Structure formats: C-alpha cells, structure tokens
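Thread: Newbie trying to understand structure tokens

Hi all, I'm a second-year student working on a class project, and my supervisor (Dr. K.) asked me to get a predicted structure for one chain before our next meeting. I've only ever worked with sequences, so writing a 3D structure as a token string is new to me. If someone could post the tokens and maybe explain what I'm looking at, I'd be very grateful. Here's the chain:
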Amino acid sequence: MKETYVRFMAPVTTQTSDQLMKLVDDKIRNGYGKIHLLISSPGGSVFHGISLYNYLFGIPLEVDTYNFGSVDSIGVVLFCAGKNRYSVPNARFLIHGVSMNFQGAASFDEKMLDEP
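---
Reply by user tm_fold:
Sure, no problem. This is what the structure looks like when written as tokens:
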C-alpha cells in the first residue's frame, strides 16, 4: 500500500480546507492507500472544520493524524478524524466551550444554553 505524509500547518479556513481536500483528492487519484496527516493548527472556522472531519472520515483510504505542536479549537476535531491518532510528548490541545451571540446585546455561553 502506498503511503504519503501531508502537513497541515494552518488555521482552518475556506482556502486551507479547499487546499487540503484537493491535495487528498490528488493522492486518492494517484493510488495512495494511507495518509499520515501532521497537524499544527490554531483552529478557525467551525463549518470548515466539521466539513474536513466528515471528508477525511469518509474517504476510501486510511488516515492517521499527528499532533506535532499545537492543535487548538476546531483543529482538535480535525485531529479526531484519524483512524489512529498520535501526539508528540509536549504537544498541546486547546479545547474550549462554545457560545452563541444573538442580534442585540444577548450572549449565551454553553452552560447557560444547557440549563433548563
């Protein structure tokens, strides 16, 4: 089985998501069976991060993910797309709560949204 290494050292944006998907599509067309995805990301767009997760989880080849520095926010979701997940000893994961802002002055954090 042909394997390849891909580095994703970027925030999760429209452009970086498209670039990663195009690169992976190219690897699929060229007969690769496994991708080692090395991630260091400050996070970014939740929409694009969820889309990347679903894409990587659903493609017809094995994906292993690696945190080799710092994987923050939606980057953690991207990291979780790997069949096997690895981390260097001093790597960092940043996981934070979510909040919603509404038109006007109203703002709710995760705890307030969960309360009855």
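A couple of things are worth pointing out once you decode it. The two ends are 52 Å apart (CA to CA). The beta strands are 2-8, 32-41, 62-72, 84-87, 92-94, 99-101, 107-109. Feel free to ask follow-ups in this thread.
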